[in-house]
Amino acid sequence: MNGDTPQTDLTPVDRLIDQFGSGMEATIPLLQGIQDEFGFLPLDAIRHVTSKTGIPASHLFGVATFYNRFRLTPVGKNMVRVCLGTACHVQGGGRVHEVTREILELADDADTTADRLFTVEPVACVGCCSLAPVVVINGTTHGLLDAPSTRKLMRKYNKAEKKAATEQS
Amino acid sequence: MEQTQTANDGLRVVIGLGSCGIAAGAQDVKDAIAGALTAHGVKASLEETGCNGACHREPIVEVYQGGTHWTYGGVTVAQAEEIVEKHLKGGAPIEEWTFQKGAIAGEVEAFFSKQKRIALGNCGVIDPEKIEDYLAQDGYTALTKALADNDRDQVIAEMLASGLRGRGGGGFPTGLKWKFTKGAVGDQKYIICNADEGDPGAFMDRSILEGDPHAVLEGMAIAGFATGATAAYVYCRAEYPLAIKRLRIAIAQAEAKNLLGENINGSGFTFKIKIKEGAGAFVCGEETALIFSIEGHRGMPRKRPPFPANSGLFGKPTNINNVETLANVPWILRNGGAAFAAMGTEKSKGSKVFALAGKIKRGGLVEVPMGITIREILQDVGGGSDTGAPLKAVQMGGPSGGCIPERLFDTLVDYDEVNRTGAIMGSGGMVVMDETSCMVDIAKFFLDFTQKESCGKCTFCRVGTLRMLETLERISEGKGKMSDLDLLEELAVKIKETSLCGLGQTAPNPVLTTLKYFRSEYEAHVEHQRCPAKVCKPLLTYSIDPVNCTGCTLCARVCPVKCITGIKKEVHVLDQAACTKCSSCSEVCKDNAIHIE
Fold first, then answer.
1. In chain A, what's the furthest Cα-to-Cα distance?
2. Which of A108, B280, B307, B575 could disulfide-pair with B563, CB 3.0 to 4.6 Å?
3. Does residue B192 sit in the same domain as residue B215?
4. Is B108 a residue whose pLDDT tops 70?
5. Could you say which of B24, B431, B560 has the minimum Cβ distance to residue A86?
6. Is A159 on the interface with B (CB under 8 A)?
7. ipTM, 2 decimals?
8. Closest CA–CA distance from residue B300 to any residue of chain A (Å)
């Protein structure tokens, strides 16, 4: 299983269990809390929930794989959500998605860049249909895009991140 | 536009900070205004509001002074600074940029004149993070009066008289739903607000929650009083962080004023609202799936009966209403059910919010009386196509709905009339399409969506939608047969007949309506391997027109597979065997030299 990181610090998970309790009803809030904390659902965090609350791991995984928001693999430093709702689709959102992946040099079946700087996630609709097509980068919405403006936008982010990464190392 | 807010003598600057306003740069504009106010030493109250629906004109800045009111649309940071300097400091409004006197005045008038704003009444008018603003618009008076009169039957009678039907798409009479829950036996009853707005292309619930959260909370509390429920949940999409934030603020403010919570205003009625964030599953808009999700399970619909009114959340009687439905409730109780029922058609009363998007000039949120025609919404309110090209169709009802062709645009906005076309009213998403939209591609887009979102419980919904999707993919690649069209129709009927919930029962609608109204487009794909809208990539061929090409090299530089070659200032050549049809070349060509057929 991807995302098995045995060194995960589980203190936040205990805090979440204190906050949401250990009943079935806590399943989704617990998973959301864990994902907010780690960016994804680490395997040992799930196991920890099971051992502390008694909620079966099969149930946690069933729920985690049913809902689109949950992910079992780590995310990149920057989250790029490309809207592929109806309005965005009609206005060229698919092309925006392609260009985004092209500029960030994502491998065919990957959603995260090899250097873990970017994750690109298609989403069904962010509700900004009048500004279609839109991309949400780290919570900031960019609207009325086309291929050239997307290329420019992604290059800007990519360049800034690459520069920051080089300076750090 | 309604201007219900009374301007005082003090100078007020109000900026629309809904999600769409922010996306259009409203936060930067607000910061610029704040900076300029300080720089010029102008004293003004800088305030926020939600979206007034004119999303195509964001960011919107309004200036109130004395009795006058100016609205600036499409404001840039530079313009914002100029507005502060010339208008706020100098006292001279820059009229040409305003809704009232500018070049766009006529368009703004057209956008708002046919609207009747009830659910959106306060959106773009009040500051959604200030309960005082809501109270100033008679907020919570409907709840307070209902509690003082203490007549639950009267509240339900008023709702029945209003004729309000579920605005989430179901169209079930709201008063009747309340009556069933009131009549159900249980020691604990629940109210759920369905804010899991999953239809891609619909965003009215987001805008109402961001722009007027208290109206929804008040509607929930009234529903709680009428049905005997004391606990409630708002189940909101996680994709709407601003809506969730404003709901939390609103709940805390209402509780602090004892308009929610224990023993509201000493009436003896207790009503507590919690927020549950969804986790991304379209099927959770279905009420039984939504209930399972709150309980901590996978959102898989179950058979009804028992209906939630009798056995819902945790097995207790539960009343579920959509955001827009609830936002209408305070108005109906304040003005009377008859006032609401005075608008609309025989079976569809009141007003309905529509989200206009796609190939439309004035996109945004509009609220119109039921009974006007689709054409009035698209042409008069929306201004027609954004490119000037004729409109081809409008998609209504999202993945459960269908494509209505231009020749049926005189259909009335009425639940039953829209159903007759094969589409549905749904939650009110209207995605407008022109000749550049391929109907096979649209059908494929929706099937791809429902196929991924099917919970997997019913075989035909799980496997049948996949088979339909594969068939559509074949057709869009030019590998379809005419018999595939019959296969699509056969599968569509079976999926409709054998699915438990609305998702499966309506999933084939986008295919059925496009087959019914745009069969010739399917035939062009199958028989001639041609996509008339030039959308389906495998059927397109790219080439360079030697007459128009100036040899500027732009296309060769942008081509990701380097299939374009040529010397500067000489005609370039495209190698069709290597071309991936990504359209990068045509996007950058300034000389109209890339030929697509």
1. 52
2. B575
3. yes
4. yes
5. B431
6. no
7. 0.92
8. 10
